[in-house]
Model the fold of this input.
Amino acid sequence: MDDQPLNLVLFSGTDDKLQAAAVLTAGAAALGRPVHLFLQYWALDAFRRDRIESDHGLAPEAGPAGREAVDSLRAAGQASWAETLRQAKDLGDVDIQACSLSMDLLHLEPADLDPLVDGVEGVTAFHLEAGGGQIVFI
Amino acid sequence: MEGNQTMTLQVARTLDAKGLSCPLPIVKTAQAMKELASGQLLEVLATDPGSVKDFAAWSKSTGNPIVDQSEDGGTFRFVLRKR
Done:
């Protein structure tokens, strides 16, 4: 695999979108590809230390049937998105950064965030680290 | 001495990834492979229906060949050689 990083901007803070992002991250990490995650807005809020394992709801299109499907996968033992990200970090080169503007918006300090988050940076640093790789917005 | 090749493969470790959903079988495989020495074999059991394509892609991308593969009643078995 090439060393082109996978760059994901996480904006949405619902569990389904965070799970999808965590799965993409873990897959790239397993292939030895570096992954940069940049947390903005409601996704950043979901990484708060005191509620990372809480229910963050689902995207509106899920509906009641979607809720049921997600719950049954979870009941069958699917790892949470936070746990999937922990495994991805153990395995490979996964860097998770909080957007400094969103930190201000949500009145957060670094100590408020789960240890999964490696630091706080601005959008310029994120673009620089993304190199020539694509940026995907979720 | 005369057994078929499948029977004589000496796996260093078996990873039971049955019941795990994508991408955990691959994540756990990549983790387990790190702990093996070059040339050692890892056997993986998985039930995720995406496994067949995922293991082929992971093997090709990372250069760790699949030396044996089978399916039995929805359980996929892969034997990978650490490069």
Notes: Helices of chain A lie at 15-30, 41-46, 63-75, 81-91, 100-105, 123-130.
